[in-house]
Structures are given as C-alpha cells and as structure tokens.
Write a structure and sequence with these properties.
about 250 residues
Length: about 250
C-alpha cells in the first residue's frame, strides 16, 4: 500500500475514533451498549467457528455424514441473537452502571495501589459469580420452554447442574483473567474509556465463556472435579485442549 493510502487510512481511523470518543462522552450508555452488543456477537461467532471445526473434524474421522451434521455445521443464529441481547443488556448496560458504581466507592482521584487492589477484589467477589452464573442461566434457558411450569422446572434443574459443574472453575479462571486486566483498567485507563477497555477483554473472555456456557451440564464425579480451576469442568479435553461443546446447550 502506498504512503498516500496509509495516510488516508490513518486519518480515517483518527476521525472515527474522534467521533466515537465524542459519543462516549455525550451518550456513554448508548455507545457502550452498541459496542458491547457487536463485540459479544463477534466473539461468540468465533466460539461457534471453533466448535464447528472440531465437530466437522470429528464427523469426518468417524465417517459420519448427513443432514443433521450439515445443520450443526451452520451458524446458530438463535444463539447469536441470544448473545446479542446478553451483550447489550449485561456487557454494555449493566457493566456501565457497575463500573460507575465502583468509581463512586473507589474514586480514581487520589487513588493508591492498595485502593486499586481493594477495587479489584471487590469487583471480582461481587460481579464474577452473578455475571457468569447468570450467563449459564441464559445458555440453559434457550433449550427449555420457560413459559410452562414443567419447562421452568427442567430449566432450573439444568441451571443448577450447570452451576455445580462449571461455576467454581469459571470464577477461578475469571479471577486469573480479569484481575490483571482490571489492574491496568483501574490504574491507567481514563474512567470514560473503562467500559470500552472492559469490552475489548470481554471479546476474548466471551469466546471461553461461550464454550463453557453452551456445553451440556454433567455432574462431576467428585467434589474435586467441580471445584478445580479446570476449564473442562471434569470432562475430558478435546483435541484442541478445550472441553467438548454442544451448540444445543443443556
């Protein structure tokens, strides 16, 4: 690419960021919700792509063909719509309000290293269990008729099983990922850009969370399996080091 082309791209990117930054300041909630929605759908699309590739490789190795296998190879549009809603409501809206709340309790002005550590611990202890547990509830609900009493009972049972299987290890992994991420966020990122930074990290985290969230719940064989920091939740890892995932959910 010529220097003129590179210069044009640089100016275009700078102007786009200027407009985006202005919208963040004037309409922070709307801008963060839109950003989170897009990033969440894209990250789940990556997770679905990895899962489809692994499923297709397994089907070819087993010599399995057929309409059902072709259907599974397609993008799960309903799952993408579910993630769109989760991204907008939770990753965008709820996280914007939550980070604003944290800023009031632990203001950035005059903050110390000790206060940043307290802020991280408070954030992880309060936000991680309900965020990840809530996501498991959404992932399991999509395969049950929650409008009926019997369907709700089945969903709650599946949700409880999912929490017992995967929430302890997910919270553990969440701390490993988000503690250093928020150390940078709370110490160096300006307050009005923290939701944007958080959603950038959410992109990678949601790929992992989608793998775990849409995997069918299986009761661990022992207490240690359910409590260890093991992304497989006690299941045998697949060929790429990630536990088998079903796009069909629980």
């Amino acid at each position: 690419m010529s220097s003129n082309g590179m210069g044009w791209l640089s100016r275009a990117a700078a102007n786009a960021w200027k407009v985006y930054g202005a919208n963040l300041r004037s309409h922070p909630m709307r801008t963060n919700v839109a950003t989170a929605s897009i990033l969440t759908v894209l990250s789940d699309g990556v997770a679905q792509g990895f899962d489809r590739s692994r499923q297709m490789a397994q089907q070819e190795g087993d010599g399995v063909r057929g309409a059902e296998e072709e259907k599974r190879a397609a993008l799960d549009v309903w799952r993408s719509c579910t993630m769109l809603g989760w991204g907008g409501v939770v990753n965008g809206g709820a996280v914007t309000l939550w980070l604003g709340f944290l800023e009031k309790i632990f203001p950035s002005q005059g903050q110390t290293l000790g206060r940043v550590v307290q802020k991280i611990v408070f954030n992880q202890a309060c936000a991680s269990p309900w965020l990840n547990g809530g996501f498991f509830g959404v992932a399991t609900a999509r395969n049950h008729n929650v409008a009926s009493a019997a369907g709700r009972e089945q969903w709650l049972a599946a949700w409880g099983s999912k929490i017992r299987q995967d929430l302890p290890s997910t919270v553990c992994w969440s701390f490993a990922v988000w503690a250093p991420a928020h150390f940078v966020n709370f110490l160096f990122v300006p307050p009005h850009l923290r939701v944007v930074y958080t959603n950038m990290v959410f992109f990678s985290w949601t790929v992992f969370l989608s793998y775990v969230g849409y995997r069918p719940p299986v009761e661990p064989t022992s207490q240690e399996d359910g409590m260890s920091c093991n992304a497989s939740g006690g299941q045998k890892l697949g060929p790429v080091g990630v536990a088998p995932v079903s796009l069909g959910g629980a």
